[in-house]
Every structure is written in C-alpha cells, then in structure tokens.
Design goal:
Blueprint lengths: L1 H38 L4 E16 L5 E15 L17 H9 L8 H30 L1 E2 L8 E6 L4 H5 L6 E5 L2 E2 L3 H9 L6 E7 L2 E7 L2 E2 L12 E2 L2 E3 L8 E2 L3 H27 L11 H16 L6 H27 L7 H13 L7 H30 L5
Antiparallel strand pairs: 1-2, 3-12, 4-5, 4-11, 5-6, 5-7, 7-8, 9-10
Helix pairs in contact: 1-3, 1-7, 1-8, 3-6, 3-8, 3-9, 6-8, 7-8, 7-10
C-alpha cells in the first residue's frame, strides 16, 4: 500500500508540474499574439489554453471566449475570420477592394495590412523571449549569483548511479576522491577530466571515506552520447558532485544586473540550441537530445521532486524553492517554444512570416491558395515527424529496454 501511495504522489507531482510549466509558457506565447492583435484592432474570437473539450470557459466584455481545454499540450488565439485555430486561412476570401476595406475596419485579421499581420504573428515568439529574460532575472534577483570557487571544492560524491562504473567500484555518497592512478585530484573538475579521457581504462582511486583512506578500482564506461551524457565514446563514472551548503558563496545582485543575467541566460540557451542543431545537421552530433512531451514531463517532475525534498527549512521554504525551480524551467522551455515557433515551417509562426515575406516580395500578392494548402500539409507532416522522433527519444531515455 505505501508503494501505491508513493506512486500516486509521484504521478501527481510529475503531472501537476508539467501542466503548470507548460500552461505558463503557452499562456505567455498566446498572450503575446492576443495583446498585439488587440492593440492593432484585430477582432478576436477565442483565447484557449489547451485543446479538446472545454473544462472552463467564459466570454469577456469584448466578446472574446476564454477557455481551458482538457488536453494541456498547447493553445491558440482564434481570430474572428479564421477558418481554423492555426489561422492558416480566412473563412471567406475577399477580393473586392471595397469589401476588403470594410473587413479591415471590422478588424478581420486576414484583411489587415501586411505589417499588422506580421506584428501579431511575431509577437508570440518574441514574448516568449521577453518572459524568459524576466523570469531568469527574478530567479537571479531572489537567489543571487553562485560564485562558489569550484576549484577549491574537493571531489566529493553526491550521488552514485545504480549499475554505473562507480556503483560497481563501490563508491558511495560523501566519498572524496583524492588520488586517481597516482595523480592528485584537487577538485571534481579534475576527476571529471580524467574520467572523460579514460573510457574502458581501469582507474585506481584513493578515496577518503570518513576517517578512512581506501583504495577502489573503477573502469569508466564509454558514453553512448544520449541526452545529458558526455559525447559518445568518452568515459562515464556515474557520479555527481556534492557541494556543502557551508561551501557555497552567493553574491547578491541588483535589479539592473539581474536583468543582464536574464538576457545572458536567454541568449546562452539560444546560442547552445543553434550550435547543437548545426552539429546535428553537419553530422557531428546525433539528434537524441531532442525531447518531446514525455521528456518535459520527466524533467518537470524531477525538478519538482528535487525542490520538495530539499534539506532544511519547512514547507513554506520548500514551496518557495519549488516556485523558483519551476519558474527557471518555464524560462528554459519558453526560449525553446519561441525558437521553434520561429522556424520557417508552415503551420508555425515562422511559416506564416515566411508567407508574408513572399507576399511582400510579390508586391502584396499572396501565394495561390493551392500552393499554401500544399505547404501547410508539408509543414504538418514535418511537425508530426518531429513529434514522433522526439517521443521516441523520450521513450528510449525513460525506458532503455524499448530500444
């Protein structure tokens, strides 16, 4: 029975944290579209978080239907003249100049000038980036900057992965590795560098365990290059570093500096993402780090569990850590959502912007409806393929035996 209760608790934590984080990110994205559309006088029909059956809904004084759907995997803003929730086409094509001018006055989205449509579409991803900057800034302002001198922290073990090379060698949490193959190990980075360079190579470790100095033999296993692991072929021991609270050095920062940290963190994620995708397309990296919904559920659940089980403090302290941890995760995911939506794939915001660019080049004449329809079909096929690929990555990471 305790195992069942523990399982239910874990399910609630993982599902709840996933829904909260994704809903925040989706709301931010769609609110960007919504606010700019309202500013530009575009008539809005629906603002939805989630898809499917409406769990909760109301209509505001402007006639906008606000709703929460049963499937929390996205959202949309539907304009008054949209044929579908993706704004791929108007319900009725207007050709007559007089009717077009009247439709523009009514605020029909597809009758708006190219500049207005472009601003509304671009606002979603850009709002994701702005949110990420401010979210990272809030976390930095509250938590401060960690300036712990890592080169002065000994190679102390926090966790040992079950079945790993470290586990087989007999390493335990709180062990401190002092010597490896006769070389003095001053900190965890030195241990990590040696392990990475030693796949399938035996290491003789001298380890301080309490008041004892013991000798253990460990043989790092070669990495397969999966997400979160070193590049393929490098050595892995299966341990994480432990920094005691008394060793941490936190530097408090001001508001302006925190905004700089937020901008730097946001750009760092974008730069890392672009570098990784470039390496994938050039064949230097595999695509196994691309995650889908299952991966997000796993990460959000792990973040929430770690925050709720942090040592020291009461429940209010833990809830505070949980809120900041989920805010950080939402910021990371917001950058990813903003970036993906700017890709020039039809059905995404970037695809709409691509069509608008073509329309501008063609002197205000959009692509023929048939060409747009085929492009949207191709875009849907690409996104469906990426979704399946990412889900397969999630399954192979969470259930290695499925490979």
């Amino acid at each position: 029975m305790p195992d069942v209760l523990q399982g239910i608790q874990n399910l609630l934590i993982y599902a709840g944290s996933f829904v909260v984080v994704l809903s925040v990110v989706v709301f931010v994205h769609e609110f960007g579209h919504f606010q700019v559309a309202r500013w530009r006088g575009v008539a809005i029909d629906t603002f939805s978080i989630g898809f499917g059956k409406t769990l909760l809904g109301w209509r505001d004084k402007h006639g906008v239907q606000w709703k929460i759907g049963a499937l929390p995997l996205g959202g949309y803003v539907k304009f008054a003249d949209d044929a579908d929730a993706m704004s791929t086409a108007p319900r009725e094509k207007i050709q007559d100049p007089a009717e077009l001018a009247e439709a523009r006055k009514k605020g029909l989205f597809h009758a708006q000038p190219l500049s207005t449509r472009s601003m509304v579409v671009a606002a979603g991803p850009l709002t994701n980036f702005v949110f990420a900057v401010f979210a990272f800034a809030v976390v930095a302002l509250i938590m401060g900057r960690d300036v712990t001198p890592m080169d002065q922290i000994p190679a102390r073990i926090a966790t040992v992965t079950e079945g790993s090379a470290a586990d087989r060698a007999g390493l335990r949490p709180y062990d401190i590795v002092q010597v490896a193959n006769g070389e003095s190990i001053a900190n965890f980075s030195e241990l990590q560098s040696l392990v990475l360079a030693s796949p399938d190579r035996p290491l003789v470790l001298q380890v301080q365990r309490g008041d004892q100095l013991i000798t253990l033999n460990a043989t790092p296993t070669p990495s397969t290059g999966e997400a979160g692991a070193p590049p393929a072929g490098q050595g892995m021991l299966g341990v994480r570093p432990l920094i005691l609270q008394s060793e941490r050095v936190i530097e408090r920062i001001g508001l302006l500096e925190s905004l700089g940290v937020g901008a730097q963190s946001t750009w760092g994620i974008l730069d890392q993402t672009l570098g990784y995708l470039g390496a994938v397309f050039s064949g230097r990296e595999s695509g196994n780090q691309i995650a889908g919904p299952l991966g997000i559920i796993s990460v959000s659940g792990q973040v929430a569990t770690s925050a709720l089980t942090v040592d020291g403090g009461g429940w209010l302290d833990r809830l505070g850590v949980l809120a900041l941890s989920l805010l950080s995760l939402a910021a990371v995911l917001s950058v990813a959502v903003g970036f993906v939506n700017l890709l020039p794939i039809p059905i995404l915001d970037g695809g709409h912007l691509l069509f608008y660019g073509i329309e501008a080049v063609r002197g205000g004449r959009p692509l023929p409806p048939s060409a747009q329809e085929w492009a949207y079909r191709a875009g849907f096929a690409v996104m469906a393929s990426l979704f399946l690929f990412a889900t397969w990555n999630d399954i192979t990471r969470l259930f290695p035996g499925a490979q």
